[in-house]
Structures are given as structure tokens and as C-alpha cells.
Amino acid sequence: DGGITQSPKYLFRKEGQNVTLSCEQNLNHDAMYWYRQDPGQGLRLIYYSQIVNDFQKGDIAEGYSVSREKKESFPLTVTSAQKNPTAFYLCASSIPRGVGTGELFFGEGSRLTVL
Amino acid sequence: GQNIDQPTEMTATEGAIVQINCTYQTSGFNGLFWYQQHAGEAPTFLSYNVLDGLEEKGRFSSFLSRSKGYSYLLLKELQMKDSASYLCAAMDSNYQLIWGAGTKLIIKP
Question: Cβ B99–A104 below 8 Å, yes or no?
């Protein structure tokens, strides 16, 4: 079955630690995205990548970093510089915007809690 | 600025019909999406509208008026499993998605 796999589903982090969230897709999509979801707010874009070895900052990139070395993989690192990292993180993929409707396919999410 | 507004919460009865409204203001427009999200889970795609009018898909329909910056999602024959949050998102001229905060729909027996 094609889809997007995020891991871990739940993660606890101490203040000052970096953590990396994994996102893997086998949909053969070029574009991948990381969103953050907080209660009472819309999804906010952290980073996105339209092609391998290229990525762009979204609206709230500060304190986060990504890489896109393979088409299938787009890991997100939450660094110690992110001041309020406790949130639900969603990875998504799509065919390139402007080509199709831009429908997003989401992973199941990773819930990060800072202790 | 760019903005999406939708009600925070709605309540409806099993078997009834409910309409969830969404208004948007974006720089340019490349379509309006509706997603369903059950608590603690990922959003799943429901519908996409880019032209004015009604798109029907089973029990769910979505309407768009570009001139009014307005969309609604219509759910018929409500079932308990329809209890979820419904997210409205508009795509601007740069193909960036602007998301609403979501409408939590509570279905009562």
C-alpha cells in the first residue's frame, strides 16, 4: 500500500535536546511538506521541498531544519532553538502544486512533548 | 493579509444535515480544499473546488463562490463517525495553502 510513514508517533524531549522526526513516502511524489498543528490554530507550514536536494522555508521555519537527500525521505529536526516545540507535527506529500489539484496526502503525525 | 474563517464548533443530530461555512481572503486564488480530521489522526482529503458551484460526492458536497470568497461543506445523513474536525484551506496565487483553524463537529444520537 502506498502512503506516508511518520515516526515516532509519540516523542518526549528534554529542553535543550535536538530531536529528528522521520517521514518516508512511497507515493513517488516530488513535493513534501512539514506542518505544525497547535490547538485552535490552522496548520502552519514549517518547510517544504519540491524536489530532491532543494527545500524552502515556510512560515515558521525558525528553530527547525530539514534535508531532502532522497525523494522518499524528508526528515525534520526540531532544534533546541525552537522555543515552544510541543505540538503535533504532520508530514505530507503531493504532486507538484500547479500540476494537479495540490491535494495533500498526510502521514499519521508525530506528537512531540517537551518535558 | 490572508485569512480563513470558519466556526470553531458545531453540533448536529445523527441522520440530519449540517453545513459548515468557510470564508477566505487570499492573494490570488487557486482552489479551496476541505479535509476531515479525526482526533489525534491525520487530515484526509474530502473535496477541491476551483470553479463556482456545487461538487457532490456521496453524502458530502462542497460549494464555492469565488466572488464572495465563500465556501461550505454540506454533510447529509449524518453518522456518528462524522464526528471530527473539518479543515478549510485556500490556495493562493503562489500555490501556498492558507488553513483555517478547523470546525469541530459533534454528532449527537
Answer: no
How far apart are the C-alpha atoms of A18 and A63, rounded to whole Å?
10
| Among chain A residues, CA nearest to B104 | A40
Instruction: Look at A42 and B43 and tell me if their CB atoms are within 8 Å.
Output: no
* pLDDT tens track for A42-86: 899 999 999 999 999 999 999 999 999 999 999 999 998 888 999
Best of A37, A43, A46 to disrupt the B interface by mutation (most B CBs within 10 Å)? A43
pLDDT band with cut points at 50, 70 and 90 for residue A115: confident
- Asked if residues A14 and A115 have their Cβ atoms less than 8 Å apart, the reply is yes
Rounded Cα distance, A63 and B88, in Å: 27
Tens of pLDDT along chain B (109 residues) come to 789 999 999 999 999 999 999 999 999 999 999 999 999 899 999 999 999 999 999 999 999 999 999 999 999 999 999 999 999 999 999 888 999 999 999 999 9
Q: Mapping DSSP to helix (H, G, I), strand (E, B) and coil, where does residue B80 land?
A: helix
Query: How many whole angstroms separate alpha carbon A21 and alpha carbon B86?
Result: 26
All residues of chain B having their beta carbon less than 8 Å from the beta carbon of residue A44 are: 99
Option in A103, A107, A111 nearest B45 (CB): A103
Q: What pLDDT is stored for residue A99 in this prediction?
A: 67
Using a CB–CB cutoff of 8 Å, tell me whether B89 touches chain A: yes
